[in-house]
Amino acid sequence: MKSHFLFFAAFISMAVLSSCTKENIPTAPDVLKDYTVPGLYVGTYSAVTAPAQGNLFYSFVVYTDGVLVTRGKAPDNKGILQDYYAKGTWTLASDSTFNGTIVTITTGGGGLPTTQAITAKFSRTTGHLTAGTWKDTINPNGTGHNGSFSTMTRVD
Fold first, then answer.
1. What pLDDT, in 10s, does the model give residues 89-98?
2. What totals of helices (H) and strands (E) does the chain contain, helices first?
3. Tens of pLDDT along 108-149?
4. Contact (CB, 8 A) for 88 and 78
5. CA–CA separation, 136 vs 114, rounded Å?
6. Half-sphere exposure of 25 (CA within 13 A, CB side)
7. How far apart are CA 23 and CA 5, in angstroms?
8. Could you please report the per-residue DSSP string of 55-91?
9. DSSP output for 4-28
């Protein structure tokens, strides 16, 4: 009887071990990363008032001390793409809404600085800013502009 029990135990052990391969070994579930807002985000923006320009490069550098610096491409008064920079502040609301206010540092064609408001949804699990919009709140150079951002991807 002992020999039958040992044979049965050995058979079960062999069956269990042979069914476990590297591909089907159970693992712990992936741990979701808990991102914080500060970092570099890269994507594109578009302007409702200039649909022909399409989507152009845009980035946010979000600092821990509440400072927000942006860099974007835009055509100058001759239609040549230039880098434009802005600096301001940001906050994150309890519903994960990212809010920023920026003032242009460089302006096209000698224009005056423009103030813009930015909003987007921040995801702690992906680190992305989504559903982003922007609008001129003070534009001494003429017509106020507004538009949207693509998903702003966090660069780790």
1. 999 999 999 9
2. 1, 9
3. 666 789 999 999 999 999 999 999 999 999 988 877 899 999
4. no
5. 7
6. 5
7. 31
8. -EEEEEEE-TTSEEEEEEEEE-TTS-EEEEEEEEEEE
9. HHHHHHHHHHHHHHHH--GGG---P
